[in-house]
Design brief:
Layout: E1 5-18, E2 21-34, E3 38-42, H1 49-57, E4 64-69, E5 73-76, H2 88-92, H3 94-98, H4 104-116, H5 132-144, E6 150-154, H6 162-179, E7 182-186, H7 190-196, E8 199-203, E9 210-215, H8 225-229, H9 234-248
Parallel strand pairs: 3-7, 3-8, 5-6, 6-7
Antiparallel strand pairs: 1-2, 1-4, 8-9
Length: about 250
């Protein structure tokens, strides 16, 4: 029996209006995500990947179609957006402040999360004193302390160098799995999508439509994104998705 989706996009279309006229960004997209899934969305630049995240987050409304989201949403952006004048702890508490939920329990949870994920000794440091990978971990914890059921990730590793990106994807993937959050990632990086995800959704060029959905299933133990990259099926998934994107272009 099919589980009830935590996110459901039904026949979504999105048109943008400007002085130059109307631009259709998304055309008839259908996508369901079940609780606990990690789903990545890939496609060419400008195809509407971030538009889909904005629709799920409720930042914009579709021109037509229906968006159903069954749970609080957290959003992690391309850059960490940490305030340089605030300590790491104060940066983590920012979302709670915005929500007016800076209770003693919520503050204690923030301390617990920083300790749990290896940042307890850095609570009173400033962002400039930390590496790019550590800053991204802080940004993720800042989002998670608001206790979202759904985490939206908009190319959160794109500002990092390649080696750091691999390391941080392991860390972030592990944290998301540990916390049991449903995650939806948009990325240009096919390898990253395969390494992190249960399913990869391939979008066409604008106006975007769903070209295909790939269930990622590796044999044996491969708990981390790095371990997944070493699996013999990995290049097969990559070649198939890359070919679909090239054919659509």
């Amino acid at each position: 029996m099919r589980l009830k989706a935590i996110v459901d996009l039904v026949d979504i279309s999105m048109n943008y209006h400007s002085k130059e006229g109307e631009t259709r960004a998304v055309a008839g997209v259908n996508l369901s995500v079940e609780a606990g899934e990690f789903v990545s969305v890939v496609g060419p630049s400008g195809c509407g990947k971030s538009t889909i995240l904005s629709l799920i987050a409720g930042l914009i409304s579709p021109t037509s179609g229906h968006v159903e989201v069954n749970g609080r949403v957290g959003y992690m952006f391309q850059r960490d957006q940490l305030f340089p004048w605030r300590t790491i702890l104060d940066n983590v508490l920012l979302g709670l402040e915005i929500q007016k939920n800076k209770s003693a329990e919520a503050i204690a949870y923030a301390h617990e999360m920083l300790e749990k994920y290896g940042l307890g000794d850095f609570k009173n440091h400033r962002p400039r004193e930390m590496s790019g990978g550590m800053r991204q971990r802080v940004a993720l914890i800042r989002t998670l302390v608001t206790r979202p059921k759904i985490l939206l990730l908009d190319e959160p590793f794109s500002a990092l160098d390649y080696q750091t990106r691999l390391s941080v994807s392991d860390e972030v993937g592990g944290i998301i799995a540990e916390e049991g959050v449903t995650a939806i990632l948009v990325t240009h990086d096919i390898s990253e999508a395969i390494a992190l995800s249960d399913r990869v959704v391939v979008l066409s060029k604008r106006p975007s439509r769903v070209v295909s959905v790939h269930k990622i299933d590796f044999e044996g133990e491969c708990g981390t994104p790095t371990a997944r990259r070493k699996q013999p099926q990995f290049p097969e998934y990559f070649d198939k998705i890359w070919k679909e994107m090239r054919e659509d272009e």
